[in-house]
Design a protein that fits this description.
single chain; about 190 residues; mainly alpha; Arc Repressor Mutant, subunit A
Length: about 190
């Protein structure tokens, strides 16, 4: 942790984009009323422990969401200290706006891929490709499986066909590159 007045090391960026916790908490509460501790457990579980916001982050955000009128709070049961948070109409409207913002942010990240490519050194390309390909597949799989009951069957079928087509195009490209490499190696071998 940087001392006051020092610049934070560039090699240790934050674990999650600023503001993501607030938006995620509002979405989680919008899906069903819950306790603050449930939110902490859910994030830990969904990120396999890679992101563990503390109570010192979660509870002030809950207070802020209550004060802003996005959620309301009730005691879990008489005599219990736990509080159950639920969404308000204002919070539900905010979630609709958030969804538009997150859809656009994905497109913005993709538009910046050229910058990220420049940051990857050649010796790390193999690891980056392997990790990235695996992560993309897992995200697509998780997304479609978790939302499949909410997506009309025709839309789900279309999405899966589009995904399969993209995979075929990727495989064609990879096979073409492998063919070019083999032809280049054979030409080089004949010249030697």
């Amino acid at each position: 942790m940087a001392k006051r007045g020092e610049t934070r090391s560039l090699t240790h960026p934050q674990g999650a984009p600023r503001g993501l916790l607030l938006h995620y908490m509002l979405r989680k509460i919008g899906n069903q009323p819950c306790y603050g501790y449930e939110i902490l457990q859910d994030i830990d579980s969904k990120t396999s422990g890679a992101w563990r916001p503390g109570a010192g982050s979660v509870y002030p955000i809950l207070k802020k969401l209550v004060a802003s009128g996005y959620i309301q709070v009730e005691k879990a049961a008489p005599g219990e200290d736990r509080k159950v948070y639920s969404i308000t109409q204002k919070g539900a409207e905010c979630l609709k706006e958030d969804e538009k913002m997150f859809l656009n942010s994905g497109q913005k990240w993709m538009a910046m891929r050229g910058l990220f490519i420049e940051l990857i050194q050649p010796e790390h390309v193999m690891r980056f490709m392997g990790d990235g390909t695996k992560a993309q597949f897992e995200m697509t799989q998780d997304l479609l499986e978790s939302k499949s009951k909410e997506i009309p069957p025709k839309d789900l079928e279309f999405a899966l066909k589009e995904y399969a087509l993209n995979l075929e195009q990727q495989l064609d490209w990879a096979n073409r590159k492998l063919g070019e490499m083999k032809a280049h190696a054979e030409t080089k071998s004949r010249r030697s």
